[in-house]
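Thread: Newbie trying to understand structure tokens

Hi all, I'm a second-year student working on a class project, and my supervisor (Dr. K.) asked me to get a predicted structure for one chain before our next meeting. I've only ever worked with sequences, so writing a 3D structure as a token string is new to me. If someone could post the tokens and maybe explain what I'm looking at, I'd be very grateful. Here's the chain:
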Amino acid sequence: MAEAKGKVLILGGTAEARDMASLLCDAGYRPVTSLAGLTRRPAAIRGEMRLGGFGGPEGLARYLREEGFRALVDATHPFAAVIPHHAKEAAELCQVPLIRLERPAWTREQGELWTEVQDNEAALRALPSGARVLLTIGRKEVMPFLARADISGVARMIEPLEGGLIAAWRVLLARPPFSLDAELQLMDAHAISHLVTKNSGGEETRAKLTAARTRGVGVVMIQRPRKPPAYTVAEPRSVLILLDERLGA
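---
Reply by user tm_fold:
Sure, no problem. This is what the structure looks like when written as tokens:
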């Protein structure tokens, strides 16, 4: 029977969440992937999809109960700072299993010139005057960088920037994965001296770190926010194994 194992809510927005939905469909679960709605054209996802927020942990708990979900998978972006707290509280209120699916963070390799900082403000302070920057932190938090008159460069994002663009900057709309050759060409074409990025982990965007090491570009690496404790795995298939064990499927 196609949906004999029941419903699983995936808090998505990542490639891992899409892979998780596909695995659950194949395994006989009925996944529903919830997206915040920030991306206007999300990639195709198997199973059902839901857009928009829940109204806090109580709203999420109500949705879990009313829709009869058997488990909750937090597969949000490693820099999602709020929803992991809501997910933990809602899962405890509903007494359903919570599993966090999160790719491992990058670690510094030999020859990489990293400056590790805690947040965007610290990253902005770490850039010297005259820096030519490849900025890869998404579109929501770029304006303080673009407004700083003594630096310039390329701001890469998936969705168009809201608001005016500073003349010294170029906005590049692109979706990963990115190849090493393309990253090297981008850095060379714009004389990039510094890469500012979040420690999102994963292979789709790792090439920019290799390119930075190859060209001697300094990396300002923003660390992940703290999240509440939760059972965490790095691979979708590990989530499937845990769900089968915990749900007796």
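A couple of things are worth pointing out once you decode it. DSSP finds eight helices and twelve strands in the chain. The longest strand covers residues 30-35. Feel free to ask follow-ups in this thread.
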